[in-house]
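Working notes for the structural subgroup meeting. M.R. asked for a predicted model of this chain before we commit to crystallization trials. I am recording the input and output together here so anyone reviewing the notebook later can reproduce the run.

Input as submitted:
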Amino acid sequence: MQNATPAASRRRNGPKSIVECGSFATLARKADVLEALDRALRQTLPSPLREQVKFANLRNDRLVFLASSPAWASRLRLMQTQILAAAHAIGTCASSVTVKVVPQPPVAKKPVRSKPLSPAAATHLRAAAASLTDPEMRVLFLELASLADTADSR
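Returned structure, recorded in token form:
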């Protein structure tokens, strides 16, 4: 069975074209309004919850929040009545709260800095290279030994 709704009027998921977004000034004003709503609504939440959620959008009459985990999303849903009361108090017309779970990206770890090879290790690598019969392996061992030499000169 095919959908009778024309393709142009169907709801589209994904990014909008730049023409549909409006002017930069309009987008900046909307971003300012959403940021002010975020501050106002999250201010009413208890401290541990406040840091784990973010207000994302006001779509039709729904307040859309993003939570860092399902547990925080559940806690926020339990506070729906207080959130809607706060929204009405600041003049926002909303009748429901939607919470989406969006895990925070992992914190970038600093790469582990490897210790340079000691001069003794370079000596042992050269001795091992001299005893090898395979020429490719000998070259690899000597390359490793030369890394120790360049690390010492730094």
